[in-house]
Amino acid sequence: MINHSPNIAFFGGEPLGVPVLEELQVANILPQLILCNPDRPRGRGMQLAKPPVKKWAEAVGIPVLQPTSYKNPADFERLTTVEWDVFVVVAYNFILPKWLLDIPTHGVINVHPSLLPKLRGASPIRTAIMENRREDIGVTVMQMDELMDHGPILDQLALPISNENWPVSGPDLDQALAQTGGALLATVLPAWLAGEINPQEQEHEAATYTKRLTKEQSELLIDPTALPNGEEAYNALLKIKAFAGNGDTYFIHKNKRIKIKTAALSGGGQLAIISVVPEGKKEMSLATYLQSLSS
Length: 295
Known about the structure:
The protein is α/β, with parallel strands linked by helices and 295 residues long. The chain has helices at residues 17-26, 52-60, 77-80, 98-101, 124-130, 170-193, 230-243, 286-294, and strands spanning 8-12, 33-36, 40-42, 47-49, 64-65, 86-90, 108-112, 120-121, 138-143, 153-158, 209-210, 250-253, 256-265, 271-278, 284-285. The N and C termini lie far apart (73 Å).
């Protein structure tokens, strides 16, 4: 138990970091330090852009660190010379070394967007959509150890999704799970710091794993003039929803890459592509794209 406002350092990345921080702010639990990804070149001009977590921290007035490596503890005086109560990790791109995990008195807490031990790894949200694993969708607040998504569970919460709303798009599920995870974290942290939670070992033999999704996986082998039906159509829609906002799915037509922006299933179970972005052009309906080929 602690008898002071907790000293918290938050390690966060996209797309979950900011929504979780917003939920903590609502609960009046703010970190004293935020660590996030480095600024990266973006856009046509490749100008350095701040990550959303950094923008949020600066707007709230919380100090920010943007490490590019955690190899040398001597580079982290801000962390090693302060008595931290707990670290919180959310969608952070770095693997944290043991010397860092050992710093806070109450360990390192992670918000993971699945019902662990299911869907460990780099892409739990998008993999759950693409593999039609609605039953594994939820959030887990866990105590981190040195292994990936392996530590004991402090609490978890399923996110029910109705048949009518499934499959949900990647960005929508990112947002929903981040908000759910942030709200759960806001209730877990005070109880954890007060010594009121007994961590539960995961059922490691039941673990399933995900890998980072690649651009190559986002290609659909379809003919836009003869779209699939039935199971093939449903699996295509799952992939479209999974990659939405994350590079998007695409198909090759007339030797051009055509990105799919929106799609659905027709009443008869046929894939209906609503809007596309042909290579080098702006977003348009699929009908408009096909008409442009004959004009």
